[in-house]
Amino acid sequence: MSLLSPPYRFLHYAAGILLILAIAIGCANLILNQDTVIPPHIEPQKTEISLPVPVYSFPFEQVRITLSSPVDPSVYSGAKAADKATRINGDVPEDVWLQRTYLAMIQDPAQDPFYTALIHTLRSIRDDQELGDDEYLELITVFVQSVRYETIGENPPKFPIETYVDASGDCDDKSLLLAGILSREGYNVSLLSFAPESHMAVGVVCPGGEYKKTGYVFIETTNLSLVGIPTDTLRAGVPLQSDPQVIRVGNGTKSFGSCKEALYLDSVLVSSETKVVDLTARIDALKIELDGYYRERDAKNYNERVPVYNDLQKTRLLYAEIHNYILDHQYDRKGTYQYVTARLPA
């Protein structure tokens, strides 16, 4: 990304829609006048087709992580074949059946072995890299962010096992996967569902960085971005303005304690771009002045202003390097914070 490009290239697309199928009052297995929600579920299907084990490779902090975990083909096949329609009977509010649908898809018991194997792999990486709770959350986040973003029309959301095996998904697919892993690792996590903008993100508790009075900080899953930095604008310039529906996932209690560092880096990203723009204007104006002194053979004024010109150039280069470093290291909050605080003038 060039220096003076907007610092955010968040390409957020429509979340997959959830299909609603109203069940007739006389349907079997339903009690009349009782509100009922039947969300999608997985029925494992035997298959003779071999399932390639996906391999993920992505940068994290100062290393490159390679991650792979086996998946039961019968569970994946069942998830793929599952009817993704949520069936409702009675007057069930939309926010209620949406919540039940997302939670059912995250927590479907057929996926338990998938989560167990994947978390075992993630914990091995955590232990090898000697990561604390904050860095472990960031590792899991960067892993999910590294899953290729893809949306095809208005598809219903995938089960997390599908997103993992397919190695692709849109905002709700990837958010369900991230929330599912974090909740099982004991973090206080929620889905943040923005219905008017058809967008979804993940929230995690972090003191000092609450997003829109939700009690959580914002985690974008569709691209590499720091935990705690909210998305302002979606694709085609659509602003993310609505208040999200907060859907708590699991009963975890662990929080993220480094959102203040992420917010600081975000503020430096914005201010450094402003400084570069301002310094460029000053440098250009001084260059015109110097050119005039040169043509007039005014050595005194020319020589007095050359050090000022050079200092401005050095300062602009410093802020440009800091700006670009932050953009290029969204997977390394800890190292980037150390880099920026060491280089910025006191």
What does this molecule look like?
This protein has 346 residues and is of the alpha+beta class. The protein has 2 domains: 19-186, no CATH class; 261-343. The chain is built from 9 helices and 11 strands. Helix 2 (94-107) crosses helix 6 (171-184) and helix 7 packs antiparallel against helix 8. Residues 1-33 have low confidence and may be disordered.
Set down the secondary structure blueprint.
Layout: E1 19-22, E2 36-38, E3 55-60, E4 63-68, H1 73-81, E5 85-89, H2 94-107, H3 112-129, H4 133-146, E6 148-149, H5 160-166, E7 168-169, H6 171-184, E8 189-194, E9 199-204, E10 217-219, E11 245-249, H7 259-295, H8 299-328, H9 333-343
Parallel strand pairs: 1-5, 6-7
Antiparallel strand pairs: 2-5, 3-4, 8-9, 8-11, 9-10
Quick gist of this model?
45% of the residues lie in helices and 14% in strands. The protein is of the alpha+beta class.
Query: Approximately how much helix is present in the residues?
Result: 40-55%
Strand order of the largest sheet: 10-9-8-11
Q: What's the mean pLDDT score? A: 89
Q: What is the number of helical segments per DSSP (H or I, 4+ residues)?
A: 9
Number of domains: 2
- Helices and strands, in order, run as EEEEHEHHHEHEHEEEEHHH
Radius of gyration: 25 Å
* Beta-strand segment tally: 11
Please give the alpha-carbon distance between the first and last residues: 28 Å
Share of residues in strands: 5-15%
Regions with little confidence, pLDDT below 50 for 5+ residues? 1-33
Largest sheet: 4 strands, antiparallel
Using the alpha-carbon principal axes, give the shape. elongated
Structural class: alpha+beta
